[in-house]
Amino acid sequence: MPTGIGRLNFDWGLSNMDRVRIGIVGLGNMGRHHAGYLHRGTVKRAELRAVCTTAPQKVEAFQPVKSFSDPEELLRSGEIDAVIIATPHYQHTSLGISALKAGLHVMVEKPISAHKADAERLIACSREHPGQVFAGMFQLRCEPRYLKLRHLIENGDLGTLERINWIITDWYRTEAYYASGGWRATWKGEGGGVLLNQCLHQLDVLQWMCGMPARVRSFAKLGRYHDIEVEDSVTAYFELPNGADGVFVSSTGEAPGSNRLELAGTRGKAVLENDRLRFVRNQECMREFSRRSASGFLKPEVWNCEIPLGDGPESPHALLMQNFVNAVLDGESLIAPGAEGLNSVELANAMLYSGLVDRTIELPLDGAAYEAKLQRLIADSKFEKKVVENAAEDFAQSFNR
Predict the structure, then answer these.
(1) Which of 98, 196, 315, 401 is the most buried (most CB within 10 A)?
(2) pLDDT digits over 253-310, tens only?
């Protein structure tokens, strides 16, 4: 996978621009975050040129920029070369397609779409426009902890991967969070809960490091901790094609919560927790040791290593946007190509679908079947969303989506 070094393979050659004029559709929590670092000039050779929002007062902090209330008008305005789509999930597909057809380079916030079938539509459109850069905002790929774990796997230091455990339950959210927007935590507005919103980055990193599972069996509980209609508690079991086992646990209702990732291979075990990466390395492959040992209770000798993480980027989002701008201007390889955003959407959909239909789901997921299930959930919903005035503004101050 690319890490930002290299060149894109565009037949049309490199851009003759010297700057990229960027627009943002959506000035919610994430949209404002992107606007902030672009406005401060953190991303070189990028200019925040225009924004689209239904709340004009949000634009004041980023003057001088042009403001639009209609996203299609912004996309067709000629004012921008590229766009960041930071709207509620269902709009990512339609706006992404419109932007590509308008000749723009596109960065889509996670998830690239609310469900697999829509993601495939967006990706198909991007392939019809190979001269435009299409990227996904998966900034965890820039963080040293995950880069070093991926290095351990790719270099064979862990041997053959045998087991994956990720407990990521430190996504605690209050009722005020869910009351901050009418689209949040509804089938119609968001298409899912903790899997599609909070955990997309972890699911992206999981498949980026370990590959896509072959099958998934999960237990997803809807509104276990909150007055919402989507999942806020999930325990999923999955298997990789090589037979390795995995468990993924997440919740937005558990406090204080945990974030522990454990990868076990034939040559050792890596544990990432509390900003520490520990590697216990077997001096010998555990399978080979088992076959040759004359004792029933011996284990391979181990080396205990603490892998230094160093300082990560001050703003991973800005680093990913710098890579995007470099791709537009110089042909630099993307860290997170938009088409790869399909995998995290598919994993989230499969885990939720398994819980909804109470059975194991084989991958690749039947995107049409899941889309039909989602449409039935929307049609059958009688849930009345409670929205609290000013809750969104109060929450936005923390930025922690």
Answers:
(1) 196
(2) 999 999 999 999 999 999 999 999 999 999 999 999 999 999 999 999 999 999 999 8
Per-position DSSP letters for 93-138, written without gaps between them: HHHHHHHHHTT-EEEEPSSSSSSHHHHHHHHHHHHT-TTS-EEE--
Domain membership of residue 174 (yes or no) is yes
Both tokens of 8, joined, read: 């894109």
DSSP for 23-85 reads: EEE--SHHHHHHHHHHHTT-STTEEEEEEE-S-GGGGGGG-S-EEES-HHHHHTSSS-SEEEE
CATH number at residue 260: 3.30.360.10
Contact 80, 50 (CB under 8 A): yes
Residues 124 and 183 grouped into a single domain: no
pLDDT in tens, 190-221: 999 999 999 999 999 999 999 999 999 999 99
Residue 128: give its domain's CATH number.
Answer: 3.40.50.720
pTM score over 0.85: yes
For residue 45, give its domain range.
Answer: 20-140+315-336
Question: Do 36 and 62 fall within a single domain?
Answer: yes
Residue matched to tokens 């430190």: 170
Count the domains in the chain: 2
Residues 259 and 157 in one domain: yes
Find, among 262, 250, 242, 240, the residue nearest to 149 by Cα. Answer: 262
